[in-house]
Amino acid sequence: MVKKAKKTQDSMNSRLKLVMKSGKAILGYKASLKSLRRSKSKMILIASNCPHLRKSEIEYIAMLAKTQVHHYAGDNTALGTACGKFFNCSVLSIVDGGDSDILTTTKE
Fold it and tell me: In the β-sheet with 68-71, what is the strand arrangement from edge to edge?
């Protein structure tokens, strides 16, 4: 069971890397909220250690905007590293998937 979780985490990281390279993504809580309000986001990723109030606010606005929400298994440090950045990121908004299949395969 642990091996399968590790494998899905690795596949998510590789998809995320492809999105950062070929697509368009917005990092950060405030910028992600702005893109959600303008209905530009196609998917939102939330780190596991994002504060509960912030997480529920993002989920609520995403529900109003009819946007997918994916709860990332790693913490904000792992999410920032998966994006190829050297800083933490608790919320990530995908505007354009690019060559990645992240928008079609991670439907919940």
Answer: 24-27, 91-96, 43-46, 68-71
